[in-house]
Write a structure and sequence with these properties.
This protein has one domain. α1 packs across α2. About 30% of the residues lie in helices and about 25% in strands. The radius of gyration is 15 Å and the shape is globular. Bound molecules: zinc ion (ZN). The site of zinc ion has 6 residues, from loops.
Length: about 140
Amino acid sequence: MVIQDDNSDELLLYSLELYQRAVERVARDFRQRGAGVKPLEVQLDDLDAIELFYERPGWTGAATLGSLPVVHSVEQAVVALADLLQEKEIEAGDNTWPGCRGGHSHPPAAALLDGDAWWRCPSDSVGFSLIDGHRHHKVDP
Ligand SMILES: [Zn+2]
């Protein structure tokens, strides 16, 4: 049992709100990049942890991913959601999803760069596409 003061309750509820705002954006980004995994919603569980529900092809219902960390901006929430869900997409067999820059054979990583959520190459650390559901932001060389 975790004892929480008012301040941490507030932080938790604020995080939940940020995640709720981030879910739609991440869902759009994933859909546009051809992911099978689709985030549905975030909720507080009985132990006041933030849980993410999602579905993927062949699943009739939603599965719960692990609880999410406290965040302080929508961008941080987007990175946390994208990171968790990318893992599920890769586990489903799409080994390099959503594809790195220049035909690299590894998947990119979700990362916060200058306060924005990006897909970033793990090899050269270049952020090449914003995680915002708008592909026109892609700046691949
Ligand atoms: Zn790369």
